[in-house]
Amino acid sequence: MPVSEPASTLHIVEAKGSRVRDAEGTWYLDGISGVLNASCGHGHPRLVEAATQQMQRLAHYDPMAASHEPAQTLAARLAELLPGDLGETFLLNSGSEGTEAALKICWQYWHNIGEPRDRVVTFEAGYHGSTALAQELSGLPFTVNEWKDRFPVNQVATPESPRALRTAEGAETLLARFSQTLENGTPAAAVVVEPLLGLGGCLVLPDGFLAGLRQLCDRHGTLLILDEVFCGFGRTGRMFGFDHAEITPDIVIMSKGLSGGLIPLAAVTARSAIKETFRNLSVPQGLRYGHTTGGHAVASTVANTVLDIIAEEKLVENSAVQGAGILDGLKAAFGEHPRIADVRGLGLVIAIEADGPESAGVIAAEAVRGGLLVRDERSVVRIAPPLTITTDEAMELVDKLCAAVSHLN
C-alpha cells in the first residue's frame, strides 16, 4: 500500500520485529527503533514473557526500604560488563534523570573529598537530556531554556566539516580545544561527552580522541563521564561506545537499549572509588536523589532479559556487520551525490548529511512514502534500526533510502 502522509501524522498501532503498522494498515520498516531504544526489535516474546511473569510476582518495592533480586542482579551484571572498577550502579527511569544523577554524584564526590568543584566541560553539539540540568550541558538550539545558569559549563565546538572531524588532524584539533578549556578556568569537576554525538548530527568522533581525552582528564584530576544513553548496548557495534577506545570512564550513564524500549529504565554506574567517598563521611548522607519507580523490579527483569538476548542472539556482532553493510551500500549508491555532503556511521548508527534541511526533509518524507521510517534533524537524516535487523532487511533499507534520495532535484 502506498504511503501518502508525512511521518508526523502517522498513528502507529502495532509493531513486530523491525516493522511497525499504522492505523491504515501500512507496514513500515522501522529505521529509528521506536525512540532509538528498541534494541531487540519490537515485541520480542522473551521480553513480554519476562515482564509478565515479574509483574505477577512483584511489580516493585521501594529500594530504599528493601532490596529485590531483579535490581540486584542487574547491578551485578552491569558491573561484569563494564571495565575496571565500574561497579556501583544507581537505577532510574530515563536518560535525562541519569544525567542529573551523574552530575549530583560528581559534585557530591568533590565535596566528599574536601575539594569542591562545579565546572563542567562538554561538547557544544552534545545532547544529554531534556531536564533542566541536562539542558544546560548542551549548546544545541532546541535545548535553550530560560533558567538562570546553575553551574559553569564550557562547551567545546567541533570542526565544521564532519569529514574533517574523522581524521587524525581532527582528533588533534579536538584534543587541543579540550586541553585549552580544561587549563583555562577553575579546576573542572567533570568532562561529559557522548562516544558519538547523536542529536548533534550523528558525528563520529575520530580514532584516538576518547583515549586522549581520558589522559587529559587524568592530568587535570577531572572525572570523565560518558553518556552511553544512545550508544550503549550494541548500538555502535561494540557493547559500549567507549569500548572502541578501550578506556574506562569514571561514571557511565545508560538507558534506551538497556530495556529494549519495553519499559522505562536508566542506570548510572560509578567507579567503586567514588562510592567509597560516600561511605567514609563522618555523617553518612548517601545520594539524595531517589525516584518512586527507580530500580523498578519489572524494568530490571526486562533489562536482565535484554542482556541475555543481546548475548545469545549476538546482537552486538550483528550491529557491526549489518551497520557496515548499510554504510557501504549507501556510500556506493550516492557517496558522490552533489546534494549529499557526507555519509557516515558506526555500527547501526548511520547518518546521511544533505546539503541543507530542505533536502534532508525531502529524503525523510520520501522514505516514509516508500515504507521506511527515519528521522531528519536539520541537515541530517538519521538511521538507527533495531539490532535484530536481518541482512535482507538491511538491503531493503538501503534500497528504500536510495529511492528516497533519487527525489532530490
Description:
- This protein has 409 residues and is of the alpha/beta class.
- The chain is built from 13 helices and 17 strands.
- The chain has 2 domains: 7-30 and 314-405, Alpha-Beta Complex (Aspartate Aminotransferase, domain 1); 48-312, Type I PLP-dependent aspartate aminotransferase-like (Major domain) (Aspartate Aminotransferase, domain 2), CATH 3.40.640.
- The chain has helices at residues 33-36, 45-57, 69-81, 95-112, 132-136, 162-165, 168-183, 209-220, 272-279, 297-312, 315-334, 357-369, 391-405; strands at residues 12-16, 19-22, 27-30, 86-92, 119-123, 153-156, 188-193, 196-197, 203-204, 223-227, 251-254, 266-271, 340-346, 349-354, 372-373, 375-377, 380-383.
- A 7-stranded mixed β-sheet has the order 4-12-11-10-7-5-6, sandwiched between helices. The protein has a 4-stranded mixed β-sheet with strand order 1-2-3-15. It has a 4-stranded antiparallel β-sheet with strand order 13-14-17-16, with helices on one face.
- It starts with 11 loop residues before the first strand and ends with a helix.
- The relative contact order is 0.17.
- Residues 1-6 have low confidence and may be disordered.
Compact description:
With 409 residues, this protein is of the alpha/beta class.
Total of DSSP H or I helical runs spanning 4+ residues: 13
The CATH superfamily name of the largest domain is: Type I PLP-dependent aspartate aminotransferase-like (Major domain)
Structural class: alpha/beta
CATH class of the largest domain: Alpha Beta
Gross morphology is: globular
